[in-house]
Amino acid sequence: MKKFGLSKTEKIYLKNDFKLILEQGKKVFKDGVILWFRPNPATGRQSGGELAAQKPKNRIGIIVSRRLGGAVRRNRCKRLLREAFRLNRHLLIDGVDCIFYPKSSQNLGDYYAASAVLLALAGKAKILKNDKGPQ
RNA sequence: UCAUCCGAACGGGAGACCGCCGCCCGCGUUUUUUUGUAUCGCCGGCGGAGGAACUUCCGGACUCCAAGGGCAGGGCGCCGUACGAAAGUACGGGAGACGCGGGCAACACCCCGCGCCGACGGAAAGCGCAACAGAAAACAUACCGCCCGCUUCGGUUUGCUGAAGCGCGGUAAGGGUGAAAUGGCGGGGUAAGAGCCCGCCGCGCGGCCGGCAACGGCCGCGGCAUUGCAAACCCCGCUCGGAGCAAGGCCAAAUAUGCCGAUGCAGGGCCCCUGCGCCAAGGCAGAGUAGGCCGCAGAGAUAAAUGGUCUCCGCCCCGCGCUUACGCAAGGGGAACAGAAUCCGGGGUAUAGUUCGGAUACAAUU
RNA sequence: GCCCCGGUAGCUCAACUGGAAGAGCAGAUCCGUCCUAAGGAUAAGGUUGCAGGUUCGAUUCCUGUCUGGGGCG
Length: 135
Prior knowledge:
This protein has 5 helices and 4 strands; from the N terminus they run H-E-E-H-E-H-E-H-H. The chain is of the alpha+beta class. A 4-stranded mixed β-sheet has the order 1-2-4-3, with helices on both faces.
């Protein structure tokens, strides 16, 4: 498996999964972005379930409301967040579902800003490997 | 040469690494006795946003609805040519509106020229509206004024004349109001006036001529009625059945309950009507609720891919420094509007920068 | 994506088929009261989302834009 890949199975795209994480996950807010996170269940609705049960993955979902602007701006927020997640995922503990919901695009000007915001959120949520120590 | 505006074209390029979506080929993995199918992963190959993809303002293709007739409702509306499936677009022309100049010393609802606009059938079918102001706003009307007659009072050179009042008196010339006032100008006429009469113009009707046509010109007659608004209703002509890919179709799967049920039920604007029916075709409600495939494409979507980082070159701006100057330049910054979801054809709107053409403009600056 | 509605005073809404935009609440001033409140009086507050057009005249009719809301698996 690629180190920095982000394939279909690593994204949250079912309505039920979103619902579950939004209702049961923990919520952290910083720099205009909300993060819900939740350790993903061993027997989820995930397609290719058995493989995922053997090696838990962190999955990502992004909610972008129309309040952020036109389609171009919304796409950009989404892509930057996804890119930041993809390149920094190895720093997170395994098996966590994350949903990002930017309330404003103020702190998402470019990739570095998005990356910093994401790491700050992860630090506040205590799902970084270094902070957590024993896994 | 600068600036602004309008129109057209383009909408930075090359590479490295990390990634994403779809398809193809192959390999592996899971399931399976095996093969095949399917799931997932991987090597490789190919393809992967725009001129507006925006807007949803029109038109079509396509799909479903019983879609045959009528009603209701919508759209369009000067003429010609070309393109087009249609909407529409382009070019040319004609009424008409507005502005400027002239006829003209001055006026017009008059004429001529130029510019600019030009959603432009019908107001002598109907209905309605026309606020305020004004006497009067669509049948006719008399506020001021003008004129006539009578009465009273006064003046008087005995010819007349002044003032006030009265008249189911005459009058639409003038004043004033208004967006608009019952054709305009000039002359005759009259007590004063009036298309009352005449000339020119306008208007209406008829004929002839020119033009493919819209329309224009000329001649004759009428004798002025006939104000505006249809981008509110309406009438006339032409045209349109309705809904929309979340249209619609197929597959798989699980529980399987209740009610309605004949002069009824359903049919998505309404009606004519059409279909099913006299005890089972159908409909409704509840529980459960959600998937996959087709539609669907040489980009093709389950929460929706087309991205990120860096280097170089090109463009624009600022520039430490060098140079008499043209200019050269380390370094720094900037690059718009905007993201496909069934697909096409138009309209509208947004656009940094570069190039070309045009206008302001044979103007200004040098 | 497709299809529908709406935008009027600070807020919630009116305004008939075109004739110069009103009501309630809130706010201001005054009266009232020992002081508040209730109550009463007075005025103020509007580029009718924006830009064009039709018309003598547009909240109303037409066109284009901006913006808010809703429905459809």
